[in-house]
Amino acid sequence: MAAASGPEQWAAVDERLAVFAREDAALAAARTSTEVTSPGIEVSRQFGRLLHLLAASAGARRVLEFGTLAGYSTIWLARAVGTSGRVVSIELSRENASVARKHLEDAGVSAWVDIHCGPAADVSARMAAAGVEPFDFVFIDADKASLPVYVERALELTRPGALIVIDNVVRGGRILEPGDDPHVQGVVSALGALQGDDRVQVSITQTVGEKGWDGFAVVRKVS
């Protein structure tokens, strides 16, 4: 009889599957960093590997990231685009950005990664106003209260055919009853807008693992 499912078993399965998301020292250091403002909220090893595979499979050369933290997902994405690509990451905290830059340097990818500090809504608005070259891939892992703004901005800043990946959209099932949590409300609002948007195709997957019960959305901009 199989053991009862729960957080401990979910984490144990992730540990078993980590062989498919092998880390070098630079990645491991970024994932386990305690120098950032919110340690432990980086993506899982498996999800980092998934971001890498999605960006590489899409042939992405320009990547936009909302939320840098210690640079863990940034490293995965930078390695996906390679030296001929560019990753632009937006981080609210200058302290986090400083930590991330060190990890990016150690990972050997800093030459093709730019970190912009400030509120993501403001930074991305300036990018849109400046008419920057469209991005091929966007990863959104910043505060969820502002998610509707981030998603709309991502659609403004990408080319047709681009992929937009949004993390933490199930919130332990709380999207069923958002209550007064602004982060859950932000997710529900963003997903509601995407549901009726003819510009996109959307797939949402529930997940369990070392990060608990959550999920992610993959959005393809079709026009």
Total count of strands: 7
Low-pLDDT residue intervals, each spanning 5 or more residues: none
**End-to-end span in angstroms?**
50 Å
Into which percentage range does the β-strand content fall?
A: 15-25%
Pattern of helices and strands: HHHEHEHEHEHEHEE
Q: Which strands sit side by side, in order, in the main sheet? A: 3-2-1-4-5-7-6
Q: Tell me the helix content.
A: 40-55%
Mean pLDDT across residues: 97
- Please compute the radius of gyration using only Cα atoms: 17 Å
The chain-level structural class is: alpha/beta
Sheet of most strands? 7 strands, mixed
Q: Work out the helix count.
A: 8
The best one-word shape is globular
Topology:
Layout: H1 7-17, H2 25-31, H3 45-57, E1 62-66, H4 72-81, E2 86-91, H5 94-107, E3 113-117, H6 120-130, E4 135-140, H7 147-156, E5 158-167, H8 182-195, E6 200-209, E7 212-221
Parallel strand pairs: 1-2, 1-4, 2-3, 4-5
Antiparallel strand pairs: 5-7, 6-7
Helix pairs in contact: 2-5, 3-4, 6-7, 7-8
How does this model look, in words?
The chain is α/β, with parallel strands linked by helices and 223 residues long. It is 40% helix and 23% strand. The chain has helices at 7-17, 25-31, 45-57, 72-81, 94-107, 120-130, 147-156, 182-195, and strands at 62-66, 86-91, 113-117, 135-140, 158-167, 200-209, 212-221. It has a seven-stranded mixed sheet with strand order 3-2-1-4-5-7-6, sandwiched between helices. A hairpin with a 2-residue loop joins strand 6 and strand 7. Helix 3 (45-57) runs parallel beside helix 4 (72-81), helix 6 packs parallel to helix 7 and helix 7 (147-156) packs parallel to helix 8. It is globular. The protein starts with 6 loop residues before the first helix and ends with a strand.
